[in-house]
Amino acid sequence: MNEVYSGAQERLVIPGDTIGESSDFTAGSGVIKIKNKLIATQLGHVKENNGTVYLLACNSAYMPRSGDLVIGYVTSMRGNLWMLNIGGPFEALLPMSLSPWNTQFGDLEEHMGVGDYALLRVQEVDSQHGVVCTMKGIGLRKITTGVVEMIGSNSIKLFVGSEGTNLQKIKKYTGCRITVAENGKIWIEGDEEGISKVRDISLDFSDTNNPYPNLNLKKAFENKMEEI
User: Fold this and answer.
1) Sequential DSSP letters for 15-84
2) Does the model's pTM come out above 0.70?
3) Which of 1, 38, 39, 62 has its CA 20 to 30 A from that of 136?
4) Are residues 105 and 86 both part of a single domain?
5) 208-223 pLDDT, tens per residue?
6) Is residue 63 one of the residues assigned to a domain?
7) Rounded Cα–Cα distance for residues 188 and 199 (Å)
8) CA of 105: how far to CAs of 79, 93, 100, 102, in Å?
9) What is the domain extent for residue 166?
10) Cis, peptide link before residue 213, omega less than 30° from 0
């Protein structure tokens, strides 16, 4: 089991792979115990923390949680609510009572239509994974400027960096305002040159051929951070 110790080289495993003996370790996320062995249940990299072995999943889906800041786009409308895609397993609901506008029944399209993006916060996730969002709060709004890019929910921590160091460096280098949402999307506001620089930095994250976590991707991103 030395290969799962902290600081060891990352191992990529697939479902069914034997990670090692379980005698000294506890099975965490993405790992189960079978006959004293730790078995992977998903594609990911092996990690260990305080005796718990877990997997850092490759391209796992975003699972909404109450309080999450998210960026979504409108997919459809009903009489009193908008339906939005926030990258989760189900569409999210935005009732007109939780919008920032004094909206009348049936007049939703006057304020936000299909294809429009918005910065929202997850207010509630029920037992059936139904998601209700709100746009009532500081900074929450319809997105009418800049661009929205997808970097993946698994890439957020790396992109932001420890205590936000990477994000602050990117903002200073590009001159852009960048809002990072927990569903893996970023909202970039700035001039064309600055937005292009942010896109160059985040390009690897949006490449589906290089799912995060990925050692080559991490090294390439860290090199970019050193260069700027």
Assistant:
1) TT-EEEE-TT-EE-TTEEEETTEEEE-SSEEEEEETTEEEEEESSPPP---TT-EEEEEEEEE-SSEEEE
2) yes
3) 62
4) yes
5) 555 555 677 778 888 8
6) no
7) 9
8) 6, 15, 15, 10
9) 147-227
10) yes
Which CATH number do you get for residue 95? 2.40.50.140
Helices 192-202 and 165-174, interaxial angle, to 10°? 140
Cα 11 from Cα 101, distance rounded (Å): 50
In this predicted structure, the answer to whether residue 167 has a pLDDT above a threshold of 50 is yes
Our measurement of the distance from residue 71's CA atom to the centroid of its chain's CA atoms, rounded to an integer in Å, reads: 10
The structure tokens listed for 191 are: 């001039």
Q: List residues bridging with 77 in a β-sheet.
A: 82
Q: Is residue 62 part of a domain?
A: no
Any idea what the Cα angle at residue 187 is, between residues 95 and 179, rounded to 5°? 90
For residue 174, the domain's CATH number is 3.30.1370.10
8 Å CB contact between 145 and 160 = no
